Amino acid sequence: MATLELEVVTPERRVLLETVDEVILPGEEGYLGVLPGHAPLLTSLETGIVAYKQGGQFHYLAASGGFVEIAKNRVNILAETSERAEEIDSDRAQRSKDHAEKAMDSASGDELEELRIRLIRAVARLDVKSKIGKSPF
Prior knowledge:
137 residues; alpha+beta; ATP Synthase, domain 1; Single alpha-helices involved in coiled-coils or other helix-helix interfaces; 2 domains; eight-stranded mixed sheet; 45% strand; globular
């Protein structure tokens, strides 16, 4: 069976380097599924869940911002931020979500946009944490 090499890196560290069967990631035009033999592609990475299938089981990462390169059965994700599900602190993510929601009530302009991005990241982190051991989406 053909496989893919999946590498996820941030400016701070390599988050993941694994041989996988399938990758689902948040691209510029929505979620994108990648199987072995996928056509070469370069797209932006949006905030959301990166799911990858390995040995019949799905695993999850929260990721935001950056780029994705798909070429020669390899998926390279260069993300601004990324965390494995087991690294996510649910309480911290919930506090971040609550704070962003509350602060959005009185924000405007650039501050509102920054809070919107924080909210989306917090929700993605909570979603990733809740998916451990479950099928994607």
